[in-house]
Amino acid sequence: MITIEGKSVFGGVSIGKLMFYKRNEKVIRRTHVDDVDAEWKRFEEAKNTAIDQLKVLYDKAIEDVGEANAMIFEIHQMMLDDLDYLESIEGIIRTQSVNAEYAVSTTADNFAQMFASIQQQFNIKAMEKDISLSLFDTDLHAMCDAKWTVEALGNIVDNAIKYTSCGGNVQIKVEQYSFFVKIDIIDDGIGIEKEEIPKIFGRFYRSLSVADQPGVGIGLFLAREIIQAQRKSKSL
Questions:
Q1: What's the Rg (C-alpha) of the chain?
Q2: Which end is more exposed in the chain, N or C (fewer Cβ atoms within 10 Å of the end residue's Cβ)?
Q3: Under a CB-based contact definition with an 8 Å cutoff, are residues 207 and 200 in contact?
Q4: pTM to 2 decimals?
Q5: Which of the two residues, 84 and 117, has the higher pLDDT score?
Q6: Residue 44 has pLDDT above 90, yes or no
């Protein structure tokens, strides 16, 4: 028998078939390559494919959410031309004669470790409000400063818990594209008025709707500064 624990959303009893999704673990293996020039070329071709995908996403986002919010995909295109990132990957391929996938994973930081740090930091605060803090299991990696990325994500998670009512939900999940990942922090809190969205990353900005909550309006500003300093991007 399998026992599955979770938060009840219905007070009654239901009998029927239960299905749940189990992610297959992805293991990136280190393999030796004889032709490092060919392997580097294979990486560059994959990078170009990712850029093409980002252009499609950018064009669609302009239609759906406007140019300001669509810039996230344009910035990701710029990230793929990050010289430090590319030099690190090329260096690993050429000096260790390994496959590109392994070189990318070695260059990047593990999200699972970052998420575990965030969960440990905010578990008690979430429990005090009976909020379900869900961190989707992932083996994805990304090129970033792990310490400061956790700091930035922590500021956003802190806000999500603060402005979510007791018994609510906060989720953190990661979605993989070809050569970048997207982090979503989702809550069912009070939300943000459309006209306030361009303002909330400003220093010391606080909405009148949360004037009764503690805070000085610096958390999202710092998150933005940390993310942009790494040549990454954030959006709502």
A1: 21
A2: N
A3: yes
A4: 0.48
A5: 117
A6: yes
Residue 151 pLDDT level (bands cut at 50, 70, 90): confident
**In contact, 69 and 233? CB cutoff 8 Å:** no
Residue 186, token pair as written in the block: 């989702």
DSSP bridge pairs for 135 = 172
Q: What token pair was written down for 102? A: 């392994």
Separation of alpha carbons 60 and 63, rounded Å: 5
The identity of residue 185, as a single letter, is: I
Hey, what amino acid is at 176?
Q
Q: Are 228 and 75 in contact (CB under 8 A)?
A: no
